[in-house]
Design a protein that fits this description.
- With 389 residues, the chain is α+β, with helices and mostly antiparallel strands.
- The chain has two domains: 194 residues, no CATH class; 143 residues, Rieske Iron-sulfur Protein.
- The protein contains eleven helices and twelve strands.
- A five-stranded antiparallel β-sheet has the order 1-3-4-5-10.
- α6 crosses α10.
- The chain starts with 29 loop residues before the first helix and ends with a strand.
- About 12% of the residues have low confidence.
Length: 389
């Protein structure tokens, strides 16, 4: 008789358990996932999906907007980089990159797509959140840098929000099972070609690769939609084309995006001394008198002292003189428009208002920097307004 230990029972002829006979533990329900997730992941869930959806929308919106990549449009990435080069502390880095504005715009759009998708799906979540913090910090140093006080700009809060998400992680809360298993060992153990389980670094690289592929597919689906949108966001004719109506575009009475104005003029009642125009004629006095303001475009061949290629606005002032200003808002580079009802230059993006009668002084934030003033010469005899070098 064999020796038996106390408390043990011997079951004769018990067959060994086969792997296929093993039962898997039931997958937790969404409610169980919610209860099992740690508090930070649950508390940050609204922030995660809001940030993710916002960045996803921002990336798609850039790709489908014809104006964003149009060099002739003042709202394009080309014009934005030019504006950033004037106000950003990173101007020394931005200036050499201006010729590559369109590729940079594409990279920014793809990055926003990948960050948004990563936040929503949980793919490479911490890396996506860290990328969101980096992109938001870059936007703060460029687009929002001129915003005073700083809390009016959204990019810095976005940066810290993304940083909180990167620290907290998802705790696998609202993360699809397919994402959780991506790069993980198979149910029977690690893949045959591996002796150990895949490292966290390998899993992260696999998820980053899949996330990049999904972002590219999303971009390819979004690009065709750009042809359904019209580039009618106030684009101005190319300065190289023959000028019509004095080279200026009348501005409607309603606020309309505009760029680049200037001032220094002769009162309407004064007699202008004869002179030989040494600048570039951009508008006629009759047009400005009829509308109160006209849009202009600083010619591409303008002297280096002028912001060549920028759109602008010429306004008739209360005392009968004229002034021209850079129409790029000093907040985030949106084109300001002429509000005839209030007699101000108004930014349609965030509501900044400028007084053309006081050298474009700020009437209403979020910026506290006036518009750039451009020098002009008014020739009443010829009926023209000329940009002075």
């Amino acid at each position: 008789m064999s020796r038996r230990t106390r408390g043990s029972r011997r079951v004769p002829n018990q067959p060994a358990e086969r792997p296929e006979q093993r039962t898997q533990a039931p997958r937790p329900s969404l409610g169980e996932q919610w209860e099992g997730a740690n508090l930070p992941a649950r508390a940050l869930l609204p922030l995660r999906f809001f940030f993710g959806a916002t960045f996803l929308y921002a990336g798609v919106d850039k790709l489908v907007d014809p104006a964003f990549f149009s060099a002739s449009n003042p709202a394009s990435i080309v014009s934005q980089l030019a504006a950033f080069a004037r106000v950003s502390p990173l101007a020394f880095l931005i200036k050499p990159l201006e010729p590559f504005a369109v590729p940079i715009g594409i990279l920014i759009a793809l990055a926003e797509l990948a960050i948004g998708l990563g936040a929503i799906t949980g793919l490479a979540f911490r890396m996506a959140a860290a990328g969101g913090a980096a992109v938001s910090l870059l936007f703060w140093l460029t687009a929002s840098w001129a915003t005073r006080p700083y809390y009016y700009g959204p990019d810095l809060p976005y940066a810290f929000g993304w940083l909180a998400l990167a620290i907290a992680g998802t705790s696998d809360l609202w993360v699809p099972e397919s994402v959780k298993r991506l790069g993980a060992p198979t149910e029977g153990g690690p893949p045959r070609y591996l002796e150990t389980e895949p490292s966290p670094t390998r899993r992260a690289m696999i998820q980053v690769g899949v996330l990049g592929a999904i972002a590219l597919v999303t971009a390819s689906l979004a690009v065709p939609l750009r042809f359904l949108r019209r580039d009618d966001a106030g684009a101005i004719a190319d300065a190289s084309a023959p000028p019509t109506n004095g080279g200026a575009t009348p501005m409607p009475g309603q606020p309309t995006p505009t760029l680049t104005p200037s001032a220094t003029s002769t009162p309407a009642g004064a007699t202008a001394a004869p002179f030989k125009p040494s600048g570039l004629t951009v508008a006629s006095i009759a047009q400005v008198d009829a509308r109160g303001a006209v849009r202009i475009l600083v010619p591409a061949n303008a002297p280096s002292s002028l912001p060549a290629g920028d759109p602008g606005v010429i306004v008739k002032l209360k005392d009968g003189s004229y002034a021209a200003y850079d129409a790029l808002c000093t907040h985030e580079g949106c084109r300001v428009g002429w509000d005839a009802a209030d007699g101000v230059l108004l930014c349609p993006c965030h509501g900044a208002a400028f007084d053309p009668n006081a050298h474009a002084a700020v009437l209403q934030g979020p910026t506290n920097t006036p518009l750039l003033e451009l020098p002009i010469v008014v020739d009443h005899a010829a009926g023209t307004i000329t940009l002075r070098a």
